[in-house]
Amino acid sequence: MSTGFSIHKMMMDRYSIAVFMMISFLVGVLNASEGDSDLHYRSCLAECEETGCVGDQCFRHCNFPSDGVLVDGPWYMKEPLYLKWKQWECESDCRYACMTDREKEREERGEEPIKYHGKWPFKRVLGIQEPASVAFSALNLAMHLHGWLSFVNLLYYNLPLNQDKKAYYEFASLCHVYAILAMNSWFWSIVFHTREVDLTESLDYSSAVALLGYSLILSILRSFNVRDEAGRVMVAAPFLAFFTTHILYLNFYNLDYGWNVKVCAIMGVAQLLVWAIWAGVTRHPSRWKLWTVVFGSGLAMLLEFYDFPPHYGVFDAHSLWHGTTVPLTFLWWSFIRDDAEIRTLDFIKKIK
Ligand SMILES: [Zn+2]
User: Fold this and answer.
1) Per-residue pLDDT tens for 203-254?
2) pLDDT score for 3
3) CA of 291 relative to ligand 1 center, distance in Å
4) What's the confidence (pLDDT) of residue 337?
5) 205 Cα: distance to centroid of ligand 1 (angstroms)
6) Between 62 and which of 24, 52, 118, 336 could a Cys-Cys bridge form, CB atoms 3.0 to 4.6 Å apart?
7) What is the Å distance from ligand 1's center to 319 Cα?
8) Mind telling me which residue stretches traverse the membrane in this protein (predicted)?
9) Tell me, what CATH number does 298's domain have?
10) Both 27 and 85 in a single domain?
């Protein structure tokens, strides 16, 4: 009886192990891209993580002690974080070397590039994973900084101020917050495209959601001309609650890409619609700038959906999408400056 039970139990254990392995294999395959499910790539990776070499190319990051403790050495060498970092570096170096090898073979056979771990095979420049996206993100950051500084210059040095030395433009502080969120978002985009790890990824995603959410609120407040504090709080509160929950959900519960793409797409399209409708009904003298930004952003969004492999190993759809927002950002801040000027002069006319 007892032997029968233990044999039965052993079989159950084996059965559950087999089921578990099947499920993890399936999950692995479903999560994988075409490139990293390739057997040659997989064996190259396994060998590299073992020996630290691919062909005659060897990586110093792969020589970390297996017991996890460095006995001699300064305190920061003993930190587990340091070892983890080396592990990441080793994995990333091996993946890159194996991917480059495989892609060279595929190119010789005249085959198109394929994705590895959800990413196109980019050429690294100075250790930067996606150089084009980094360069364009930096340009976007510079554009926002330039736009914001010229907005501040116009508001506080060129336009009249009220008795309290404050700007007449009612949307000034909303624009300052917008500028800070935009620059924050592009900063993390630079970091993320330079080196992709879980931490940089969630920082990039979270700041992008914050920026998108905030600009949706801004579009509603400006186009409906909501000027009093109570009205603004009423409009913003439900949105703020939703975005905060969404960011917390992504970071601490489940980084669900599909769901996040849907949320971001809805927020993006919603604010383009709000601006487009307003641009259609308003008599704002600079409405053509708004039209151009809305139309341009709509077209640019298509790049994000039409995902093509990188040209010259550098320019893929995502990086070009970051590229198109550079001139749009310039025009956008130019619209904000016009708006500030027009509203201030209108206000002065009224009080005279
Ligand atoms: Zn990006």
Assistant:
1) 898 899 899 999 999 999 998 888 888 889 998 999 898 888 888 888 888 7
2) 42
3) 24
4) 95
5) 9
6) 52
7) 7
8) 168-191, 203-221, 233-253, 259-281, 288-306, 318-336
9) 1.20.1070
10) no
